[in-house]
Amino acid sequence: MLINTNIARMPGSYLFQEIANRLTKYEENRVGRKLIRLGIGDVTMPLPKYIAEKFAEAALNMSTKEGFKGYPPGSGYPFLINKIIEHDYITRGVKLSEDEVFISDGAKTDTGAIQELFSPSAKIAFTDPVYPVYVDSNAMAGRLGEYKNGQWQRAQYLPTTGENGFVPPLPDNDVDVLYLCYPNNPTGTVLTREQLKKYVDWARENDAIIVYDAAYKAFISDENIPLSIYEVEGAKEVAIECCSFSKTAGFTGVRCAYTVIPKEIQGSDSEGNKYSLNKMWLRRLGSKSNGVSYPVQVAAAATYDNEGKTAINETIGYYMENAKILGAVLAKCNISFQGGIHAPYIWLKTPMSMDSWSFFDYLLHNCQIAGTPGVGFGPSGEGYFRLTAFGDRENAVEAASRILETFRG
Asked: Which DSSP symbol is given to 183?
């Protein structure tokens, strides 16, 4: 039996699995203070009561003959899709039709699967550092060539560091697909409309596609920063947008997200024939997915009700206060960092010229704090480190105290 060697030959383990392995080994021998985990970006606040009640009510209705639901519509229930359009897009001046929004079980699922629409020979560009799923999914499909010296030979990396103000350069003209994530994971940075427009213009000029991950858009607190790429003129011709309820509504354990593929977006075959990516994605869903359950979609729809919005805003405020606490102590210790304002991530420059994994070990053994080594997000992440604000307040306060004690002591 022949195997997919693209997967078999992938380097090492998934970043977060490597971190988990190291922490398990550390905990086996730990003595003293508890470990504070500021690494993996899982939420810690419970589902808002109002949303959980709607979730439970829908599940209980499934126990009745009248309320039972079988397979959901492949693209999602209209009641959820229309709320998404009304609250996430019309309010931002963006018009979408119901058949341009597709409900799924997670932005990770969709950003990993969207590459199935692209040719095996498509040339891919990523911001660097980058959320690993974009890279790994294309590597598994065989598009990225060999892995040498810490990077894939056929991928184009766009360094996004302090040297360029964390604004990635434009890709080469022969790139077919560009992955962008804003607010950015891992750097916590954002782009203005003017900055984002240059990527949209590039894609339009070069017959390229942008895969835009907006999973953290609800954390943006400045009206001048776009929440959707479609706020930029011409973006509906070239951009696919993925969004999630995971980090905003606490759905990491519930699983619901959506992807927008406007009808204007087209791709070509080797003979120049045009095809609708919207229709291609619908066709793929019909073959590979049975959709997201009715109770989950009811719960997601409840996030747009007034009670749901209020609860979500309180949760987001809680996490961002954690970020403020961590950012303030880093500033006191003269540790340079980005993020923590429009995103729940802080991206710090490792002190004492340490590399990313050395700082991981240093912080673990001296502060009993676990974060994420920047190099795990790509070559340009070397010398950086990510902390997450997804945690309990007491952990954020205690972590800040430990950092202050270690780096100002």
From this structure: S
Query: Do 136 and 127 meet the contact criterion of CB atoms below 8 Å apart?
Result: no
- Give span(s): CATH 3.40.640.10, the chain: 52-305
**Model confidence band, residue 57 (pLDDT cutoffs 50, 70, 90):** very high
Average per-residue pLDDT for the chain: 96
| CA 380/CA 374 separation, integer angstroms | 8
Tokens read off for 317: 């405020």
Letter string b/e over residues 97-110, b meaning 16 or more CB atoms within 10 A of that residue's CB = eeebbbbbbbbbbb
Q: How many CB atoms lie within 10 A of CB 264?
A: 15
The pTM is what? Answer: 0.96
Kindly give, in sequence order, each residue whose CB lies less than 8 Å from that of residue 154, ignoring residues fewer than 6 positions away: 123, 124, 143, 144, 145
* Contact between residue 104 and residue 292 where contact means Cβ atoms under 8 Å apart: yes
CATH of 52-305, one of 1.10.268.10, 3.30.565.10, 3.40.640.10, 3.40.140.10: 3.40.640.10
**123-161 confidence digits (pLDDT tens):** 999 999 999 999 999 999 999 999 998 899 999 999 999
Dihedral angle sign, alpha carbons of residues 97, 102, 106, 108:
negative
Q: Using alpha carbons, select from 281, 257, 242 the residue that is nearest to residue 111.
A: 242
Q: Let me know if 159 is exposed, middle or buried by CB neighbors in 10 A (0-12, 13-18, 19+).
A: middle
* The CATH number fitting domain 5-46+307-407, selected from 1.10.3470.10, 3.40.50.620, 3.40.50.261, 3.90.1150.10: 3.90.1150.10
8 Å CB contact between 386 and 378: no
Q: What is the CA radius of gyration of the chain?
A: 21
Q: How far apart are CA 260 and CA 236, in angstroms?
A: 9
CATH 3.90.1150.10 domain range(s) in the chain? 5-46+307-407
Length of the chain: 409
Q: What count of Cα atoms within 13 Å lies in the side-chain half-sphere of residue 175?
A: 25
CB neighbours of 343 closer than 8 A, spacing ≥ 6? Answer: 183, 184, 185, 188, 189, 190, 216, 219
Angle made by CA atoms 145, 149, 154, in degrees to the nearest 5: 25
